[in-house]
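Dear colleagues,

For the upcoming journal club I promised to circulate an example of a predicted protein-ligand complex. I picked one with uracil because it came up in last month's discussion. The inputs are reproduced below in full, followed by the predicted structure.
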Amino acid sequence: MAKESAAPFVPDKADLARLREAARECRGCDLWEPATQTVFGAGRERAGAVLVGEQPGDQEDRRGEPFVGPAGRVLDRALAEAGLAREDVYLTNAVKHFRFTRNEGGKRRLHQSPNTVEVAACRPWLAAELGVVSPSVVVALGAVAGRSLLGPSFRVTRERGVVQACPPFDALGARPERETGVRLVATVHPSAVLRAEGRAEAYAGLVADLRVVASLLG
Ligand code: URA
C-alpha cells in the first residue's frame, strides 16, 4: 500500500454518515494538519449524479461543506440552468482537505492545487462515496477530478462534454477495462469560469456540459 493513503481510515461497509464521521480523523496524508477540518461530500445518499470537484476552498474549509464559496455559486447557477438541482445530486471533491499557502503578510490563505500523491492518497474516500451513492453518472469538474477518476492521461479540453465509461469505483484512476454501465462526463471546474477572460462563453460551456449530464439522467 502507498505510504500516504486514506485506506486504513476508511471503514468497510459503511453508510455516508459513518464515512463522514471517520473522515474527520483521516491522517492519510499531511493535508489534515494545516486545514481547519475535513470537508466530506454532501447531498443525497442515493443520487443519480455525483459531481467531483478538486478540493475544498477557503470558505469550504471554514464551513465544512463542499462548494459553498464563489465556485459553488457558479455551479449552483449552472446546475439550475441545465435543469439539475443541487438537492438532487451528491457533491464531493477528489481531495477532502484544503491545500493552501499563505501570502507574504501571512493573513490570506491562497489555494494550491493538490499534488498527485495527495490525490491518490484521498482516492479511497472518493471510491467509498461512489460505492455508497451508486450514481449512474459521475461528473468530473476540472482536471484534478478527471485525473483522479480516469488516470493521468485525462485532459479536460479534449474530453469535456463527452459521455464515456466510468471505471469501477474500486479501480478509480485507470481507464475502465470492464463495463459497469456507469457514465462519466467531464467539464471545466467552476473556478475556471471565474478566472476565464471570456467568462460568459466559459460559463455557457459549463452549462452545455451539464445539460449532457441532465440528458443522461432523463
Ligand atoms: N472548489 C472545489 O473544487 N471544491 C469545492 O468544494 C470548492 C471549490
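Two points we might discuss: The two ends are 40 Å apart (CA to CA). DSSP finds eight helices and eight strands in the chain.

See you all on Thursday,
B. R.
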